[in-house]
Structure formats: structure tokens, C-alpha cells
Task: inverse folding
């Protein structure tokens, strides 16, 4: 099989060789020089560099126009290039999810409409232009969320105390979001939505689906939120149990947005005992979701997603989960809010760093430049790791103690270089 991979996510995050036999298939990686540099040097494949100044679809189309060739599959494992891969499949006549199907799992307005039509509860919402036309007169009161349709990591997400405050901030150009406040192109408003703030614990559901059947699933609850992390607070999540009713709810949500093949990362709020759909992606979760998922289930999600995307039957081939039934959690401590400074170390970390529950611990060494962008990546952010407990409560309580105890010590940056962290792996 001839496989084209739109390569953006660093290789070590996916480990393509675990899901694709590079001896059996002809694999071409199409990406920027930086992305291609993450490929193992001895990997049997073709590497095609692109400038990275335009969308991947545009640059791939131009490359193939100059050097025509056929592919049996076009794959992207990056949330940001799923639509590019779908467009390229349609352009080349290659099997796989079409653009309209992929768009449902990329656009937060489209997905909420679809889920609501399927009979599941979603936050009440409006596209931003319609919200402004109605001058904030909406069927809810109180806290109101402004967010992009296709954002990630809670970038450009704002919470206002009232709908009226949201209207005023946008119309007066005082949101703090450059593309909304500049006034140069009001069409940017089309990229945003407004929704009611729904309170309650936030959970994420991760797993694998093939032909619409959920093959494996985990449930986790967040400590902190992506929005607070963007604002400089630590966050994480810990695995919890789930009922068959919850599994059925997840399956209904996936069917509504036509996520039929591959991995998924679905987020919901538990409000007064009811699940309220927030958003879903046809991709693996960020931070250490992949690692904690594999520890709990034995399933390496990217590997099995690749097999699904190649059309290989996966049901019945999944490994049995470990018998110990331990509950895993991941945690991250941000540094982007301190950009321009250097890390001098972590205060209060000694009691946790080599604790018996620690599975992985990666921290920036003294002198490392703090990141200038939001990242959950170990080795880029101040601290990232994995912890294990015999119960969800043990895992949660350990992370609560960590967040209450640890802080980052900094001083003004002396250089602009970034010193990579060295991961420490500790047996669970």
C-alpha cells in the first residue's frame, strides 16, 4: 500500500512504526523540515519537505501537480491538518472520511448542533455575529464564554460575567484577542462563538472506534481546566470508572458527529448529574493522555488508529488490560505565562519527585528558557508527569497535594536558548 502522511506531530508522539509496517508499505512523510527532523534516521520511508508557509493541502497539491503519483491512503494525525488530509483525499480520489464529515469534528458550532439534534444536552450557544446582532439577548443569564470555532488549548477563550459584558468587550474592541480587537477584518467574528457557562466537573472520554463501534474507552476527570492552565495554573486529570449508560452516551455523541473510525477525545461537563457535551475531536488527547491510556488498557491509541485508517480489522486484536486495575493520572505545570524568564527550579517538589506513585516525571533544568507559547509537552513546559493510584481518589489526592505544594522559581532570561529536559522514568 502507498501511504502519504501529512506529518506535523513529532514522531515520538505517534510512533508510526508501531501501527504501520514500513517494510510492507511504501510510506511518504510530507512535512516541514522541522517535522521531518523528528523521523528516526533509519526509518524506511520517503521524506518530502514542504515550506510550511501555506496550508498542507495547498502545498501537497502543488507538489503532486509537479510530480504526479498515486496513493492508497492519505493520513494526518494532527488536529490542525485533518481537514487538509480530507481535502487531499477528495482531490486524489483516495478512500477515507470526506471533508464534510471531518468538519463536524473540527467546528464547535457544527458539532454542538449535530449533538443537540441527536437528543443530547449541549450548552446553549450562538455564533458570534448572531450574538452581536441580538445585542446579547440570549436565553441564559450569567457567565458567558467566548471561544473560537476551531481552537485548541483554550487559546483566545474568554469568560464574561454576563452576556452584556461580552457584547461590550467585542463591540468596543476590548477582548484582548487581537483578531477581534483590530477592527481590520470583522469577518474574523465568523470564527468565534458564544455559549453559556455550564458549571460542574469536566470529564474527558478517550478511546478507539471502528465502523462506528466503540472498541475501547476510558473516562477521566480534570483537575483544573485548560482555560486556567492558559492563565498559568497547573492542571491534570485522573482516570475514573464509568457505566454502560455512559458508554452508550459517548457512542451517541460520536455517531452524531460522524466519528466512525479512529481515536477520539470527547469532553463533557457533569451538571446536576447530567452529562453536557462540550466538544470532541477525531484524534488522541494531548498531554499524557496516550501514555496513561496505554498504562490502563494496554492499548497504544495512535498505533491502533493507524491500523483502523489502513482498513485493518481491529476488533478482537486489542490486548487485555493489566490485571492490577490501577488508576493513572497526568499532570502539567505551565511556564508560558512567565515567558522571557528562565527556570531556576521547582520549590516544594522534593517530596513528590521520587515518590512511589510516580510513573514519569519531567521538569525543566535550572537555566532553561520558559516557553513562549501554551504547551503541555514534557520537556517544554515546567513540569509534566504521570502518577498511579489504586483508586481514583488516591490519584486525585496526590495531584491535589502536588498542585498545592509546587511552584516555579524564575529569574530574567540570560539567553534565548531552550535547554531540553531529561525525562525520568520510574517503574509504577
Result:
Amino acid at each position: 500500500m502507498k501511504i502519504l502522511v501529512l506529518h506535523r506531530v513529532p514522531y515520538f508522539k505517534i510512533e508510526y512504526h508501531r501501527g504501520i509496517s514500513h517494510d510492507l508499505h511504501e510510506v511518504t512523510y510530507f512535512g516541514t523540515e522541522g517535522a521531518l527532523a523528528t523521523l528516526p534516521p533509519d526509518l524506511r520511508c520517503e521524506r518530502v519537505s514542504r515550506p510550511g508557509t501555506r496550508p498542507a493541502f495547498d502545498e501537497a497539491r502543488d507538489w503532486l501537480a509537479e510530480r504526479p503519483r498515486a496513493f492508497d491512503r492519505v493520513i494526518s494525525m494532527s488536529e490542525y491538518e485533518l481537514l487538509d488530509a480530507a481535502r487531499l483525499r477528495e482531490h486524489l480520489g483516495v478512500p477515507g472520511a470526506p471533508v464534510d464529515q471531518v468538519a463536524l469534528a473540527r467546528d464547535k458550532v457544527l458539532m454542538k448542533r449535530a449533538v443537540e439534534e441527536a437528543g443530547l444536552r449541549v450548552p446553549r450557544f450562538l455564533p458570534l455575529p448572531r450574538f452581536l446582532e441580538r445585542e446579547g439577548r440570549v436565553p441564559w443569564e450569567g457567565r458567558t464564554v467566548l471561544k473560537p470555532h476551531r481552537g485548541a488549548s483554550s487559546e483566545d477563550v474568554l469568560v464574561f460575567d454576563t452576556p452584556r459584558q461580552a457584547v461590550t468587550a467585542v463591540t468596543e474592541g476590548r477582548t484582548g484577542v487581537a483578531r477581534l480587537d483590530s477592527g481590520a477584518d470583522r469577518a474574523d467574528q465568523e470564527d468565534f462563538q458564544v455559549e453559556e457557562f455550564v458549571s460542574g466537573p469536566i470529564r474527558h472520554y478517550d478511546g478507539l472506534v471502528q465502523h462506528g463501534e466503540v472498541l475501547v474507552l476510558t473516562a477521566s476527570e480534570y483537575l483544573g481546566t485548560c482555560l486556567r492552565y492558559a492563565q498559568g495554573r497547573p492542571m491534570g486529570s485522573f482516570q475514573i470508572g464509568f457505566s454502560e449508560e455512559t458508554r452508550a452516551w459517548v457512542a451517541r455523541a460520536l455517531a452524531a458527529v460522524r466519528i466512525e473510525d479512529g481515536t477520539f477525545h470527547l469532553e463533557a461537563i457533569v451538571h446536576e448529574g447530567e452529562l453536557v457535551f462540550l466538544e470532541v475531536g477525531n484524534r488522541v488527547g494531548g498531554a499524557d493522555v496516550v501514555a496513561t491510556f496505554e498504562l490502563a488498557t494496554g492499548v497504544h491509541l495512535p498505533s491502533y488508529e493507524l491500523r483502523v485508517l489502513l482498513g485493518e480489522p481491529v476488533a478482537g486484536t486489542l490486548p487485555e488490560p493489566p490485571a492490577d486495575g490501577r488508576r493513572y493520572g497526568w499532570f502539567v505545570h505551565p511556564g508560558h505565562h512567565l515567558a522571557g524568564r528562565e527556570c531556576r527550579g521547582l520549590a516544594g517538589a522534593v517530596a513528590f519527585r521520587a515518590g512511589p506513585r510516580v510513573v514519569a516525571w519531567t521538569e525543566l533544568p535550572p537555566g532553561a528558557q520558559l516557553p513562549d507559547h501554551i504547551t503541555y509537552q514534557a520537556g517544554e513546559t515546567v513540569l509534566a508527569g504521570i502518577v498511579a493510584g489504586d483508586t481514583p481518589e488516591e490519584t486525585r489526592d496526590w495531584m491535589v497535594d502536588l498542585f498545592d505544594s509546587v511552584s516555579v522559581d524564575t529569574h530574567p532570561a540570560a539567553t534565548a536558548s531552550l535547554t531540553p529536559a531529561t525525562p525520568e522514568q520510574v517503574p509504577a
The CA atoms of residues 95 and 284 lie 21 Å apart. Residues 2-96 form a domain with the Rossmann fold fold (CATH 3.40.50.20). The two ends are 39 Å apart (CA to CA).
